[in-house]
Input
Amino acid sequence: MTDVRTDDRTAFRTCPLCEAGCGLEITVGRDDDGRERVQRIRGDMDDVFSHGFICPKGSTLKQLHDDPDRLRAPMIKRDGEHVEVSWDEAWAEIAARLPDLIERHGRQSLAAYIGNPTAHSLSAMTFSRALLTGLGTRVRFSASTVDQMPRHVAAGHVFGSPVAIPVPDLDRTDHLVILGANPYASNGSVCTAPDFPGRIEAIQERGGKVVVVDPRRSRTAEQADQWVSIRPGTDALLLAAIAHVLLAEGLADVGDHVREHIAGLDRLGAALDAFAPEAVAASTGVDADTIRSMARELAAAPTAAVYGRIGTTTTEFGSTASWLVDVVNTLSGNLDRPGGSMFATPVAGGATTRGRRGSGKGFRVGRGQSRVSGHPEVMGEYPVNCLAEEITTPGDGQVRGLVTLAGNPVLSTPNSDQLADALDDLEFMVSIDMYLNETTRHADVILPVPSQLQRAHYDVLLLQFAVRNVANYSPPVLPLGDGEIDEWEVIARLSLIAQGMGADADPALVDDLAIDGLIGSAVKDENSNVYGRDADELRSALDASGRRGPDRMVDFMLRTGPFGDGFGADPDGTSLDDLLENPHGRDFGALVPRLPEILRTPSGVVELAPDVFLDDLDRLAAAIPELDDRSLVLVGRRHLRSNNSWMHNINVLVKGAPRCTLQVHPDDAVALGLAHGGAARVTSRVGHVVAPVEVTDSIRPGVVSLPHGWGHDLPGARMRIAAEHAGVNSNVLSDDRSMDPLSGTSVLNGIPVDLEPA
Output
């Protein structure tokens, strides 16, 4: 290894590897060849949000950047093998094949898949819409329907915008109830909170209480004051029963601060009659006395917040469970109040800060239906579990081409073997990705993007769900290497080729159209701080900085956001220059009440009892007998050193004892003849896997657990470290026919399975 000299510098950036947004202090030196190399990464003690906290993932950005398996040049599949080619060859291949496919089959023969890593990429967040527009197809899928889509659906119906998601005010609450989440492993999700574990412990240190509802005694449950062991898939029943108790015992009090802004309270009592604690105790596995106690404590606490995450959303009743989280927070008087469940004010703006305040067009689904199964559109996309059938089912509109932007749906979506087989039926597939993985091995062309250390970063999406109003911008730490192209330029050029503009199309065209669109919308928005201004004047002010791409766009968003300088209107306001002068970020304060201005419902009030959810309560009540009878079910789990599938190629994160084990309760192990360290065959309706057994009393009887994101043993992938720790793919077992009908989200928790010794 080449030695690194001591003439180093320090760079500060936000970690992009999960939703916590921790600040990093990165020491950079030069090697004997004069190239910059990362020497050390540690937590930024002066970061305004994370204050030095860092998890094991953040310190591995160097290893991720240096990973020899990370793609540095485009690849084309020739004679079944991927070979490196020049960028000119890659663009020429796409320009020859993609427009031809569109000409022969039409644009609806194209599908697009947007993966989870795009939420952590400034380039992808600012240019993915341009890609989808360039492709011109309505056949769109994303990781949202194997993750958080129910939370968006609930927020959309109740508050009018799918991103108007209240988050627990962790730093001021006295009582926190966590359902289906393990922040000690995940650091939080749809709740941006660096050092989530430390914030939990701070609640306890100031005399508060933390309750964790989970079928596993997770690390978070171990820390909690109370662990409520629940049967998977029944969170909606538990929440409905808690809401029932609040209403039936006269404990419900929404509070004077929001009373005039809420409709539907009078409809809830009758709708929840069927969910008395005694009626759901057997199904949930939580006794009636515990349910009543949980409700009474929420009502009695000075402040309280209920937080539900992926264990509640990836179930048959994910949307209704997400809605009931909002119902319980409201009935206990904790909606939109300090210490309760509050809305962030994103510094770069967003759907909850732009446009008319206090009312809007509201939220609706079903503006289209998937071709084969007729699943309704939600937020412009279809359930990803129907992607395979869209490819394999003949007829008008059959998907013949696919573009993927990050992500690994072959490992992350239901009935994975079925999807893998379907991808081989495509005529043409293009993937934008850092790796030749289980999904991109099917692609005809792979377009690589630089590492996270070579890209600018701002959490455009995630800071909309932050527990404080903060802003951090990170310029690239390392320069692009020879032959590397910035991610936004890759996305932009692909979108132009899809429009028939040829292999030499200039990405600047997309960039200019995008920024002009932002400016045009802002100067027409009566609530914007640049309303009525001259668009050309604002464009000239932006261009004077010399910035292009995402930097220019995020500068505009900051300057026109709720804390922005308004291009001179507020000299104390923020901008990209301001954040560059404050490399540790800027803190704009704790969350503040935002009702009613946050609302985008047509009525201008919180619609606490939408018909769509009241109707779904009938389906929930009807499911109680079947939930009572379920025997053995499978749930997922998360590990601190992992984030989905793509970080399994970093040795320091996967070394040690195998983590892809099947956790089984001792009672079940005895009954089924399973031994710790032995192997079990796990079978569901759609598939089977063989996994090593881990017998543990940290999981409730009748439940087994496999972590997601593993299964790195497929031929054609090129992730050598991951292959050495292959594990098994839990989504071979998840059922493509099982979903939450209100959001199209797959059921990944509570999957009925059978076990036997392998």
Notes: The chain has a mean pLDDT of 96. The longest helix spans residues 87-105. The chain has four domains: 9-66, 75-138+377-590, 149-343+595-618, 631-757. The longest strand covers residues 23-30.
